[in-house]
């Protein structure tokens, strides 16, 4: 656990010490919503709810708030102790999961359509999907919707899911060939660990990259109080990478999603696991931002 916390703290401290905070970069977050945590300030630019149709930001589960905090919390409520990777980015939470963390793929498809129509208005460059369908063989329309968003130029980052250690356990839409699929570096050991792994049913090697996901401390919100909590899973690994991409897009806004994916590949640190466990390797934020190959 201590090793994991140090790894995440290293990423967060690196982000804080950089000249970049992700300012101006819009990040859409498909999840359980997001509460108006102190760490988000006025950076929630828009909110969509495909569960109840409410207009004001809320989160009746907590998962989405936690994910948003990893991406872009500024640490204000903790006096800088728990700061997200891109503390200046713009947040666009889209609620597709209910209070129990359940949802319909149609909600995700509707969210993709909304993102396409509003991407210029909110400068949405990255889409974080810490959501995964475990239904086998019924997700082609979901994958097609997500891949369309990729094809129009947005960066889509999806969780590998928590169905490991069995082979073929990547959830949809993380099983898409195009999107960036993130596993948990500290939950992906051979023959153990819950991080989803490939190959997919289409024989695609996944995940693409891994990042810390065990015991990650991020934003929580109860009874109007901005606090923090620890959660684990590939849902927590995914926003680490998403936040790093937001930083890079502030630094080099002209990069395409394919160029970003290539840089992830070229700057990842090999952990010594098989490709279907670790992908290209560990997400190394300093190398990713500088473009220097390890």
Write a concise keyword list for the protein shown above.
294 residues; alpha/beta; seven-stranded parallel beta sheet; two-stranded antiparallel ribbon; 8 helices; 9 strands; globular; disordered N terminus
Care to describe what's here?
The chain is an alpha/beta fold and 294 residues long. Helix content is 31%, strand content 16%. The chain is built from 8 helices and 9 strands. It has helices at 2-17, 63-72, 105-118, 140-151, 234-251, 257-267, 275-278, 285-290, and strands spanning 26-31, 48-49, 90-95, 124-129, 155-159, 180-184, 209-211, 216-222, 225-231. A 7-stranded parallel beta sheet has the order 2-3-1-4-5-6-7, sandwiched between helices. Strand 4, helix 4 and strand 5 form a beta-alpha-beta unit. Helix 3 (105-118) packs parallel to helix 4. It is globular and about 45 Å long. The chain starts with a helix and ends with a helix. Mean pLDDT is 93; it is low at 1-7.
Fold blueprint:
Blueprint: H1 2-17, E1 26-31, E2 48-49, H2 63-72, E3 90-95, H3 105-118, E4 124-129, H4 140-151, E5 155-159, E6 180-184, E7 209-211, E8 216-222, E9 225-231, H5 234-251, H6 257-267, H7 275-278, H8 285-290
Parallel strand pairs: 1-3, 1-4, 2-3, 4-5, 5-6, 6-7
Antiparallel strand pairs: 8-9
Element string (H = helix, E = strand):
HEEHEHEHEEEEEHHHH
**Biggest β-sheet description:** 7 strands, parallel
For the biggest β-sheet, the strand order reads: 2-3-1-4-5-6-7
Taking pLDDT < 50 over at least 5 consecutive residues as the criterion, the unreliable ranges are: 1-7
How confident overall, as mean pLDDT? 93
Secondary-structure-based class equals alpha/beta
What's the count of strands?
9
Q: How much helicity do the residues have? A: 25-40%
Overall morphology: globular
Q: What portion of the residues fall into strands of 2 or more residues?
A: 15-25%
**N- and C-termini, Cα separation:** 25 Å
Number of helices in the DSSP assignment: 8
Rounded radius of gyration (Å): 17 Å
């Amino acid at each position: 656990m201590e090793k994991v916390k140090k790894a995440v703290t290293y990423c967060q401290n690196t982000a804080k010490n950089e000249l970049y905070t992700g300012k101006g970069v819009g990040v859409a977050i498909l999840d359980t919503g997001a509460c108006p945590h102190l760490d988000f300030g006025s950076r929630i630019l828009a909110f969509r709810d495909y569960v109840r149709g409410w207009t004001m930001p809320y989160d009746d589960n907590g998962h989405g708030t936690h994910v948003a905090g990893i991406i872009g919390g500024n640490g204000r409520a903790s006096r800088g102790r728990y700061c997200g990777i891109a503390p200046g980015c713009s947040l666009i939470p889209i609620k597709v999961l209910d209070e129990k963390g359940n949802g319909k793929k149609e909600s995700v498809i509707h969210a993709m359509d909304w993102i396409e129509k509003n991407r210029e208005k909110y400068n949405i460059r990255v889409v974080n999907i810490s959501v995964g369908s475990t239904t086998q063989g019924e997700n082609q329309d979901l994958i097609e919707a997500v891949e369309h968003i990729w094809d129009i130029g947005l960066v889509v980052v999806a969780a590998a899911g928590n169905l490991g250690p069995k082979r073929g356990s990547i959830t949809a839409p993380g099983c898409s060939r195009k999107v960036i699929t993130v596993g948990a570096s500290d939950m992906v050991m051979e023959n153990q660990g819950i991080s989803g792994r490939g190959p997919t049913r289409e024989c695609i090697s996944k995940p693409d990259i891994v990042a810390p996901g065990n015991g990650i401390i991020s934003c929580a919100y109860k009874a109007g109080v901005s606090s923090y909590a620890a959660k684990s899973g590939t849902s927590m690994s995914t926003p680490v990478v998403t936040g790093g991409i937001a930083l890079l897009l502030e630094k080099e806004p002209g990069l395409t999603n394919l160029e970003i994916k290539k840089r992830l590949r070229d700057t990842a640190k090999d952990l010594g696991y098989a490709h279907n466990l670790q992908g290209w390797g560990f997400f190394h934020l300093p190398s990713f931002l500088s473009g220097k190959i390890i």
